[in-house]
Design the sequence.
């Protein structure tokens, strides 16, 4: 016993001696233009000789509206396109939401470049990374990564800048911009690299470069006569092979074909040791597990994603809206009835979104692979319920079902049905909180859920994202939070503010969201006390151990990402 204790002591002692000799580099990253560590100009010159494109100096696009005007800037063009998600994604220094371009100092001062020039605030760089690489190939990414490691730079990977927690910006950091990696290829008999050649895969696969956005992926899918599981938003500007899929990726087709991660056959990725890896079920299967749901900007720089595709399918769009609820009780009965119906709709593989508050309710549903008659039969009892509940009390009820031959054509009509909320998601200041609702909760507590959500007194977006095929995947076969396999709905609440709002005003909006968060318990958000559990569930420890294998120097760290608890709030310095 004594001997064992002594041995343990010695082992522990040796460990601490080893780790002393092995101290990891500096505690803090080198930030832009820090004279004590920032690489000299000739080092950037030699980096640029290794790249296919010149180095970039991203600026907030709004800077074109300030003197001395950026020679290539055009303020009229900026104002015209400010709310266009595709235009914003084209600018290296633009984030989808203005506020992730800004930086709030601890003393409350804000460094920003407001679109509203009448505020009279000078334009500053904020959180936009001031320098970076416009990567077009894995070799470009390798050179960028090796340079960042050598000089201990703080790295930000950016594809479209749509991240909802601002994970693709970072004050003083070095950007690896993957937006221009636009290759697409189709393979009618895809064989994963390293896979057994005695097996036939029969996969009709689409391989997308890391800069491909959903509008481009859908056009490619359609041109090959195949359907690909992806997101929906105004302009379809979200990245199809970057943050969306690394975080899981839900789609109106998910109840039919699973989440985006359930459809990935292979990734290519550059690690922090600047190696290019092909990652699939046979090659680096641990990393393949982790990349499917372990989050963007965490394991390496993805350069391409290969997706399985599906045969073309007809689909029905279901539109129902109720305006001007005459009483809270009627709103409660409609929302509660709708939530109680969600398990049935999920079993029919419907996707879509409902939005509601105490004055209105709307549902835009997508029913793939169903006839108009089948869709009508499924929704009619709810329509009858709504008509009866609102009979004679003055609400406006509108209902229609529209058949489409192709989901790609349907998407345009679906997005149009979402109206202003979706079209104005770019070029705003805002944050959101959200939570997955398990099937069991909806089956048993739909009245309480409706009551709680309506009680918040704000607009709720409720995405029909889970169930069906999503619930049939073995939760432990991939890194994604296993909570997805039991979930049906994803409830989202957002808050926003005008340009120029001071830190006190911004914190007021944030506090309101924190209040919603408290009400909805374990919501996943900026303020999540235990992001590990909320975002990753009991897969967190394994995800972290895989991160440590492939990124031992912690080059890739993002807000509330795997391993981020080892860093301070700004992700500039390791915690002591
Ligand atoms: C208008 C809108 C609509 C949306 N609709 C949907 C939807 O229908 N379904 C859904 O599931 N989600 C949806 N989202 C959420 C969206 O999936 C996330 O915001 C996602 O993080 C965006 O990924 P991105 O690569 O486009 O954005 P970015 O902000 O560029 O990147 C997001 C994260 O991924 C990292 N990253 C980017 N590129 C790479 C790369 N090449 N390699 C490794 N890491 C990388 C970044 O560092 C960052 O952490 C929507 C978001 C918006 C703003
Ligand atoms: C600036 O942008 C506007 C709107 O896109 C365009 O009409 C105009 O020609 C542009 N001006 C210059 C100098 O490029
Ligand atoms: C984004 O850039 C691409 C490539 O230059 C261009 O074809 C596209 O029109 C741009 N989109 C917008 C909305 O400006
Ligand atoms: C707040 O802090 C920043 C950074 O240290 C500094 O530049 C700024 O002047 C400060 N603002 C005020 C009002 O003290
Ligand atoms: C811009 O700021 C000015 C000054 O605060 C304000 O009066 C105006 O309403 C703002 N414009 C917009 C579009 O928000
Ligand atoms: C993109 O495709 C072209 C043509 O097939 C090829 O030459 C190029 O190497 C590809 N680029 C990447 C990054 O895969
Ligand atoms: C392919 O070969 C492997 C290894 O030899 C074997 O385990 C597997 O069963 C084979 N598969 C088929 C479909 O024959
Ligand atoms: C009815 O609802 C519409 C749209 O939601 C709204 O614009 C209008 O003001 C409402 N009317 C009344 C009387 O509340
Ligand atoms: C119609 O609504 C009333 C209350 O408004 C309710 O008592 C009745 O049960 C409803 N009927 C049906 C068929 O839903
Ligand atoms: C912040 O703005 C609000 C509203 O405009 C104002 O009342 C408040 O005094 C401002 N606070 C600070 C610290 O400037």
Sequence:
């Amino acid at each position: 016993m004594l001997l064992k204790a002594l041995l343990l002591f010695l082992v522990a002692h040796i460990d601490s001696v080893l780790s002393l000799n092995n101290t990891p580099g500096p505690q803090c990253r080198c930030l832009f233009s820090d004279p004590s560590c920032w690489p000299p100009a000739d080092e950037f010159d030699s980096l640029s000789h290794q790249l296919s494109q010149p180095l970039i100096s991203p600026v907030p696009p709004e800077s074109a509206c300030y003197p001395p005007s950026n020679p290539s800037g055009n303020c009229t063009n900026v104002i015209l396109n400010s709310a266009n998600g595709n235009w914003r994604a084209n600018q290296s220094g633009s984030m989808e939401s203005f506020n992730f371009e800004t930086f709030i100092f601890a003393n409350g001062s804000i460094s920003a470049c407001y679109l509203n020039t009448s505020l009279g605030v000078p334009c500053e760089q904020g959180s936009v990374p001031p320098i970076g690489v416009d990567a077009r190939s894995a070799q470009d990414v390798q050179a960028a990564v090796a340079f960042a490691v050598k000089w201990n730079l703080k790295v930000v990977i950016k594809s479209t800048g749509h991240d909802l927690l601002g994970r693709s910006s970072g004050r003083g950091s070095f950007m690896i911009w993957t937006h221009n990696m636009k290759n697409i290829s189709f393979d009618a008999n895809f064989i994963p690299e390293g896979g057994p050649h005695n097996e036939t895969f029969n996969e009709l696969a689409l391989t997308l470069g890391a800069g491909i956005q959903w509008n481009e992926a859908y056009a490619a899918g359609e041109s090959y006569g195949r359907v690909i599981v992806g997101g929906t938003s105004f302009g379809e500007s979200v990245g199809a092979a970057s943050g969306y899929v690394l975080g899981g990726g839900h789609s109106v087709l998910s109840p039919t074909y699973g989440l985006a991660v359930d459809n990935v056959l292979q990734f290519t990725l550059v690690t922090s040791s600047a190696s290019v890896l092909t990652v699939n079920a046979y090659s680096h299967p641990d990393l393949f597990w982790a990349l499917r749901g372990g989050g963007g900007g965490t394991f390496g720089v993805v350069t391409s994603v290969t997706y399985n595709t599906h045969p073309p399918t007809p689909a029905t769009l279901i539109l129902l809206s109720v305006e001007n609820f005459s009483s809270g009780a009627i709103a409660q009965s409609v929302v509660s009835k709708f939530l109680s119906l969600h398990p049935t709709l999920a079993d029919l593989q419907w996707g879509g979104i409902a939005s509601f508050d105490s004055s209105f309710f709307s549902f835009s549903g997508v029913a793939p692979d169903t006839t108009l008659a089948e869709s009508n039969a499924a929704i009619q009892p709810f329509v009858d319920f709504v008509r009866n509940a609102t009979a004679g009390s003055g609400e406006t009820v509108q209902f229609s079902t529209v058949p489409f031959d192709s989901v790609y054509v349907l998407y345009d009509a679906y997005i149009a049905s979402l109206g202003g909320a979706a079209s104005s998601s770019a070029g705003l200041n805002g944050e959101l909180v959200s939570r997955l609702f398990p099937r069991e909760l909806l089956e048993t507590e739909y009245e309480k859920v409706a009551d709680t959500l309506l009680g918040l007194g704000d607009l709720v977006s409720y995405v029909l994202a889970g169930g069906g095929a999503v619930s049939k995947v073995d939760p432990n076969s991939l890194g994604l939070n296993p909570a997805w396999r039991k979930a049906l709905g994803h409830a989202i609440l957002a808050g926003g503010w005008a340009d120029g709002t001071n830190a006190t005003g911004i914190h007021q909006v944030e506090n309101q969201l924190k209040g919603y968060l408290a009400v909805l318990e374990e919501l996943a958000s900026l303020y999540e006390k235990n992001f590990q559990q909320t975002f990753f569930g009991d897969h967190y420890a394994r995800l972290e151990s895989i991160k440590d294998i492939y990124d031992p120097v912690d080059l890739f760290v993002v807000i509330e990402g795997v391993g981020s608890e080892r860093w301070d709030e700004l992700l500039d310095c390791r915690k002591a």
